[in-house]
Amino acid sequence: MIERTYTSEITEAMDGETVSVAGHVHELRDLGGLVFVIVRDRDGLIQGVFKEDREPELFEQAEELGAEDVVRVTGEVTESGQAPGGVELVPEELEVIDEADAPLPLEISKDVDADLSTRLDHRGVDLRQPEVMAVFTLKSKLMDAMEEWFQNEGYVDVETPLISKGGAEGGAELFPVVYYEQEAFLSQSPQLYKQILMASGFDKIYEVGTAFRAEDFATSRHVSEISMFDVELSYIEDHHDVMDVQEESLRYALRAVADEAERELDELGVDLTVPEEDFPRITFDEALDILEAQFGHFPEDPTDLDTKGERLLGQHFEEQGHPAFFVVGYPGEKFYYMQDVEGDDIASRKFDLIYKGQELSSGGQRQHDVDVMKEVMAENDVPEENFEFYLEGLSYGTPPHGGYGLGIDRLVQKVCDLDNIKEAILFPRDPTRLTP
Ligand code: ATP
Ligand code: AMO
């Protein structure tokens, strides 16, 4: 490895020590006989001070540098009240490791706002901005913590196929793939496999996976390729057991971010509130009542919450100190795998979690009686032959179970207060974007 010290490790206590810092040239400030070279690594910035009268050869080299060149600066750590981080380097050696082409497609160091589309066109350069990279170092900490919760609770980490015969979530949003002689699609959700694994006796599982939705519209919360955190557990009494898991794991992960991602939150200017109190659980009807009474809002489709409805409910609960809450029971979604309470005509054991005014996850208690499932499939014109493997998988003894799928990108979007979900994805895919 090339010897180097990360900028985050260099402190005032190291005054007088010689270190090497490797990174990109973030900014060059040429003040005549003095050049400030600001070097950026993953963790931050440090400035090297090159003086013509002190180190003429190094000064000449520094004057030749260009923005985003990759360099290694070796020098003495020197305390300085004027340096951005309180320390700077008095250089002893400057190596140019790779030169960057000029001009850059985007400005990195200057506060120039490019539109999102241009940023995504040049994502490799865009990601160099400290506040953009912070989204992804934060995401890594968030998801590590989330997995840690499930590992601590004895969940098994599984992987299910990404190529499937049919859709788990209905037929409209599937991407077809060329698969030998057979019709096949990219997976929309690991739902069916999660349930078969419950029948197999895995008891508690989670999967960090990818799901594909051929959404043919552009919103700030939909993309075509999604990172999904899926969970399934057995021997539940009802859907409240599943909501408990969702609530506790999310609180744990958000706490970890608040404790361990201070630098990233600072960089993003985010003041994260960890929802320590119980998440409110309201019925769909109660949600409609709040929307009508508080905001005079009626969703266009009275069987589903619209984007505005979610946002207004989010506002209502946030004002009461609850950034997250559950809406339970959706009249419009009597899906074959969802369980109803007998005599009730709605998918009463289905829930959505709304976080900061946006749907973050869907889940519920599943139907584990295959005969009932077949009836619902027939009523809804779902072709049974596409799901033979699933129905067979649940036929030989299935414990009561439930679970949910959480959109990781939406979670990161909301934690980081980003306007668009695509900012929470390294290389997002939408109906028009296939590169980079
Ligand atoms: P799920 O698939 O679980 O329902 P989702 O958030 O993708 O999750 P959708 O039902 O696809 O949910 O859509 C939820 C909301 O997203 C809709 O109620 C609507 O407000 C918004 N939405 C969906 N389609 C469009 C669209 N074409 N244009 C604008 N907004 C849309
Ligand atoms: P659902 O279809 O609601 O449920 O998806 C779960 C969560 O995934 C996210 N999501 C999306 N994010 C960005 N772009 C999209 N196009 C998109 N579509 C979905 C949302 C959503 O809440 N099988 C069930 C889960 C279960 O019951 O276990 C399912 O997939 O955050």
Automatic annotation (TrEMBL):
<comment type="similarity">
    <text>Belongs to the class-II aminoacyl-tRNA synthetase family. Type 2 subfamily.</text>
</comment>
<dbReference type="InterPro" id="IPR004365">
    <property type="entry name" value="NA-bd_OB_tRNA"/>
</dbReference>
<keyword id="KW-0067">ATP-binding</keyword>
<keyword id="KW-0648">Protein biosynthesis</keyword>
<dbReference type="InterPro" id="IPR006195">
    <property type="entry name" value="aa-tRNA-synth_II"/>
</dbReference>
<comment type="function">
    <text>Aspartyl-tRNA synthetase with relaxed tRNA specificity since it is able to aspartylate not only its cognate tRNA(Asp) but also tRNA(Asn). Reaction proceeds in two steps: L-aspartate is first activated by ATP to form Asp-AMP and then transferred to the acceptor end of tRNA(Asp/Asn).</text>
</comment>
<dbReference type="GO" id="GO:0005829">
    <property type="term" value="C:cytosol"/>
</dbReference>
<feature type="domain" description="Aminoacyl-transfer RNA synthetases class-II family profile">
    <location>
        <begin position="136"/>
        <end position="436"/>
    </location>
</feature>
<dbReference type="GO" id="GO:0050560">
    <property type="term" value="F:aspartate-tRNA(Asn) ligase activity"/>
</dbReference>
<keyword id="KW-0963">Cytoplasm</keyword>
<feature type="binding site">
    <location>
        <position position="359"/>
    </location>
    <ligand>
        <name>Mg(2+) 2</name>
    </ligand>
</feature>
<feature type="binding site">
    <location>
        <position position="169"/>
    </location>
    <ligand>
        <name>L-aspartate</name>
    </ligand>
</feature>
<comment type="subunit">
    <text>Homodimer.</text>
</comment>
<feature type="binding site">
    <location>
        <position position="362"/>
    </location>
    <ligand>
        <name>Mg(2+) 2</name>
    </ligand>
</feature>
<feature type="binding site">
    <location>
        <position position="213"/>
    </location>
    <ligand>
        <name>L-aspartate</name>
    </ligand>
</feature>
<feature type="binding site">
    <location>
        <position position="359"/>
    </location>
    <ligand>
        <name>ATP</name>
    </ligand>
</feature>
<dbReference type="GO" id="GO:0000287">
    <property type="term" value="F:magnesium ion binding"/>
</dbReference>
<keyword id="KW-0030">Aminoacyl-tRNA synthetase</keyword>
<feature type="site" description="Important for tRNA non-discrimination">
    <location>
        <position position="84"/>
    </location>
</feature>
<feature type="binding site">
    <location>
        <position position="362"/>
    </location>
    <ligand>
        <name>L-aspartate</name>
    </ligand>
</feature>
<dbReference type="InterPro" id="IPR045864">
    <property type="entry name" value="aa-tRNA-synth_II/BPL/LPL"/>
</dbReference>
<dbReference type="GO" id="GO:0017101">
    <property type="term" value="C:aminoacyl-tRNA synthetase multienzyme complex"/>
</dbReference>
<dbReference type="InterPro" id="IPR004364">
    <property type="entry name" value="Aa-tRNA-synt_II"/>
</dbReference>
<feature type="binding site">
    <location>
        <begin position="407"/>
        <end position="410"/>
    </location>
    <ligand>
        <name>ATP</name>
    </ligand>
</feature>
<dbReference type="Pfam" id="PF00152">
    <property type="entry name" value="tRNA-synt_2"/>
</dbReference>
<keyword id="KW-0460">Magnesium</keyword>
<feature type="binding site">
    <location>
        <begin position="213"/>
        <end position="215"/>
    </location>
    <ligand>
        <name>ATP</name>
    </ligand>
</feature>
<keyword id="KW-0436">Ligase</keyword>
<dbReference type="InterPro" id="IPR012340">
    <property type="entry name" value="NA-bd_OB-fold"/>
</dbReference>
<feature type="binding site">
    <location>
        <begin position="221"/>
        <end position="223"/>
    </location>
    <ligand>
        <name>ATP</name>
    </ligand>
</feature>
<protein>
    <recommendedName>
        <fullName>Aspartate--tRNA(Asp/Asn) ligase</fullName>
        <ecNumber>6.1.1.23</ecNumber>
    </recommendedName>
</protein>
<dbReference type="GO" id="GO:0004815">
    <property type="term" value="F:aspartate-tRNA ligase activity"/>
</dbReference>
<feature type="region of interest" description="Aspartate">
    <location>
        <begin position="191"/>
        <end position="194"/>
    </location>
</feature>
<dbReference type="GO" id="GO:0005524">
    <property type="term" value="F:ATP binding"/>
</dbReference>
<dbReference type="InterPro" id="IPR002312">
    <property type="entry name" value="Asp/Asn-tRNA-synth_IIb"/>
</dbReference>
<feature type="binding site">
    <location>
        <position position="359"/>
    </location>
    <ligand>
        <name>Mg(2+) 3</name>
    </ligand>
</feature>
<dbReference type="Pfam" id="PF01336">
    <property type="entry name" value="tRNA_anti-codon"/>
</dbReference>
<dbReference type="GO" id="GO:0003723">
    <property type="term" value="F:RNA binding"/>
</dbReference>
<keyword id="KW-0479">Metal-binding</keyword>
<keyword id="KW-0547">Nucleotide-binding</keyword>
<dbReference type="GO" id="GO:0006422">
    <property type="term" value="P:aspartyl-tRNA aminoacylation"/>
</dbReference>
<feature type="binding site">
    <location>
        <position position="366"/>
    </location>
    <ligand>
        <name>L-aspartate</name>
    </ligand>
</feature>
